[in-house]
User: Which sequence fits this backbone?
């Protein structure tokens, strides 16, 4: 098995998990599921004794203190400090230009929950084997519900015992299409986890988004090292076009592949997703935080309080969050709109 370099992307503000997630400490750095933060869990899934090289973390200045505090003393770890947010294609390219051309990159978001680390490791090994053959590989997360908040991957012909061509990348569907995808059985969620060799990724990026490839290459060439930190040239990187790796590379390459991954995955993209990832009682209720909570005749309720006592009676499909002086209450159907609240927008 090739040595796999974890490239962990730390960005975003997690506004849909307001008020717990805030601009100064967004969701990757919070212990939302269990005692570890999502970022710490991402690091632990890629241990040296599992065939993983030291991680490369790509983050912005505003998250740098959190990253370094939670990164610990992993020997050989590298932190690339983005001078501006230019989306995932440029972020991944920053890491690629700092690695040997034959290295296999495993690109992972820092803010996802994966309940089955063994299944993740197995999928990573399968993806790395395909990457060694020149494929650009996506993790196809087993679709367990007709979700409309995720993109989908359509499984094509098999190319190994564990891998398939990606026949199609599908944008977020409406509910009827999502139900049809689930029934057909050959569609998976696009979890935003990728594996490819450095040289293959950069070749595709140069072919399809030459301005991004050239701009990032120049920013890295004129960057500077500061201990474990690497700072690309700010002015050059700030002028790089912004595009996602899906649009820039994965939907354009003829070498797109996927490995199925059934690993109890969640993007923890909103309060309902977090509730789904937590342990629940017989009535579907969950309690988080330090405060005392009492529920009477409730179903599918999540209460997260950092201190004040919360009492909930006779409600269903509701989420209550208390964070300092902020209280947020939403129905499950309203969770996607939490990020539009003034408290979330004006942090």
Assistant:
């Amino acid at each position: 098995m090739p040595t796999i370099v974890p490239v962990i992307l730390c960005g975003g503000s997690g506004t849909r998990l307001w008020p717990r997630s805030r601009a100064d400490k967004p969701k990757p750095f919070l212990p939302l599921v269990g005692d570890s933060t999502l970022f710490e869990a991402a690091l632990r899934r890629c241990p040296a004794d599992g065939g993983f090289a030291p991680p490369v973390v790509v983050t912005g200045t505003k998250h740098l203190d959190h990253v370094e505090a939670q990164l610990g003393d992993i020997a050989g770890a590298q932190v690339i400090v983005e001078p501006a947010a230019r989306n995932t294609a440029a972020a991944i390219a920053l890491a690629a230009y700092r690695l040997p051309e034959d290295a296999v990159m495993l690109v992972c978001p820092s803010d996802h929950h994966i309940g089955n680390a063994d299944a993740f490791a197995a999928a990573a090994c399968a993806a790395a084997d395909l990457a060694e053959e020149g494929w650009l590989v996506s993790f196809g997360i087993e679709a367990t519900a007709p979700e409309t908040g995720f993109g989908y991957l359509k499984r094509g012909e098999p190319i190994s015992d564990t891998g398939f061509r990606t026949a199609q990348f599908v944008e977020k569907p409406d509910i009827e299409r999502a139900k049809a995808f689930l029934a057909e059985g050959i569609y998976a969620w696009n979890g935003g986890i990728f594996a490819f060799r450095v040289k293959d990724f950069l070749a595709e990026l140069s072919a399809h988004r030459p301005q991004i490839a050239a701009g990032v290459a120049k920013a890295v060439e004129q960057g500077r090292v500061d201990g474990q930190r690497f700072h690309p040239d700010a002015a050059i990187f700030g002028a790089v076009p912004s595009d996602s790796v899906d649009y820039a590379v994965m939907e354009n390459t003829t070498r797109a592949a996927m490995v199925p991954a059934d690993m109890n995955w969640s993007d923890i993209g909103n309060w309902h997703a977090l509730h789904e990832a937590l342990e629940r009682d017989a009535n579907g209720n969950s309690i988080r935080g330090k405060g005392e909570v009492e529920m009477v005749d409730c179903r599918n309720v999540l209460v997260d309080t950092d201190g004040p006592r919360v009492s909930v009676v006779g409600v269903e499909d509701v989420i209550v969050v208390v964070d300092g002086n902020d209280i947020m209450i939403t129905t499950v159907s309203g969770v996607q709109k939490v990020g539009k609240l003034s408290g979330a927008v004006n942090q």
User: Anything to note?
Assistant: The CA atoms of residues 23 and 310 lie 25 Å apart. The first strand starts at residue 4 and ends at 10. The chain has a mean pLDDT of 95. The radius of gyration is 20 Å.
